[in-house]
Amino acid sequence: MELSSLDENKLDKITSHRRSASKPAPTNTIIADDTALVNQAEPFISADGEMVAKQLRQIQRRDFSEADIAAIIDAYQSGTSTYKLAAEYSCHRRTIGNLLKKHGVEVDLRKIKSEEDASHIIALYEESHTMEEIAKKFGVSANTINQLLHNHGVRIRSRWDYSK
Questions:
Q1: Nearest to 145 by CA among 125, 163, 115, 116
Q2: What is the pTM of this model?
C-alpha cells in the first residue's frame, strides 16, 4: 500500500514535529494537583515524542493540624463517611480511617449505622419505594440497601412486582 503525496507530506510533518518534541522535561514535573511522576531522573519522552511514565503515585498528605483532626473526628462521629472526608481533605479514605483509629475513634465499616435507619429503610421498601430512591435518600449505594434488606430477611422484589 502506497501513500499519496498528500499523506507523505503529513507524515513528514508529524515525524519532524515528534523529533523536535523529544527534549526531556524537567525532573520535578507535576502531572496533576495530587499526582506526580515516579522515577523522574529517567527520561520520560519516548523516541516518538510520546510522554511515558512507568508509574504514577499520589502525593501523600500527612500534615493534619490539630484543628483538622478535631474537625475530622467531629464530622465522622456525626455521620460523615470516610469517603466524603477523604475527598474534602484530599487524601485516601484509609488515611482518614487510620487517623481516626490513632485517636481512639472506633471506625465502623457499616454504611447504615443505626437500627432505626434500618427499620426505616425496610418500611420504605415495603411501601414500594425502589432501592435507588432509598439509596439517594440515605446517601449510600443501591447495593448497600440490597445487602441490608437481604441481611434482615426481606424478600427482594423483581422488576415485575412494582405497580405501574
A1: 125
A2: 0.42
